[in-house]
Write a structure and sequence with these properties.
heterodimer; A: 121 residues; alpha/beta; five-stranded parallel sheet; globular; B: 223 residues; mainly alpha; 75% helix; 2% strand; rod-shaped
Amino acid sequence: MAKTVLTVDDSASIRQMVSFTLKGAGYSVIEAGDGVEGLEKAKASSVNLVLTDHNMPKMDGITLTRTLRGLTQYASVPILVLTTESSDEMKAKGKAAGATGWMVKPFDPTKLLNIVKKVIG
Amino acid sequence: MQKSDVSLTLWTGGALSAIAALGLVMLGTGAAAAATVAGLAAAWAALVWRYVGRKQAYSEVAGRSQSQIEQHLDELAAETRSARAELEQLKELLSDAILRLVTSFSALYGLAERGQATAPEGGINADFAQQVNKAVTALQFQDMANQLVGHIDTRVAAIEQLTGSSAKAPTLAPVLRAQHMPQHEQRHAALDELGAAVIAAHGRRRDSPVAQARAAQGSAELF
């Protein structure tokens, strides 16, 4: 059974590119346009990996990460932050919130796929 | 009351006291004259004391207002410089992305034209896949450009508020127009209000969420 990745990003083109890359490698992908929608979809589905942007309307990626970590269902599910933010301060905040890793955009599809494979196989 | 009015009052009061005292002494009214002189002198001293105190208070308020205005003008200059730098970054990012896309699409077109889009053993040719990856990476410029534009917009809003071109009150313009001394307290209060409004509206975050100026930079780190 294909592993499921939830991609949360307010940019439709980024969601499409993530989806295109991961689906091509056999993953199942669920899309959400902001943190609130991401949280709803995460609660409603069984997700193997969450790939979230940070700067989003309604709820940012670090808040989403922290909120998901508070749910038993997502206590140990890998969460990768995929963002334009590259400062050490933001990375430290993401790590403190419970993120598994930090990827700075723009992403190279091959590198994204390698990281995803490394995290969830 | 203007500064000149206060000075005039003081000097007139002092002169009148002196004339009255001299007149009374000349009339030889003795103790009554001495008491009147003492009373007038005390009143004059009180007036001088009050004037000096008010002058000092005005100077302090004026000094604080001046310092606040300079601070807001510095902030205005900093916002303008940052907005210009971010526009330059945006221009560089767009040029870089377009160049990368043109290069990738030209390469893809060349491979397809030569019938090399697919590998002889089946599947997609490695060079073709690599060019698609490069194009996908470069296409992400839109997300970075959107964030940069959003950040520049917050800077422009701050500039609008400081220059008074925004409909949102308070602004710096009416404060700068207030020239007279009695208005210093109002200027001071208005500047305080403006400072608080600017901070509340735009926060203290000055860093752009996008540091990249090229569409081929990115990194990954697992914690």
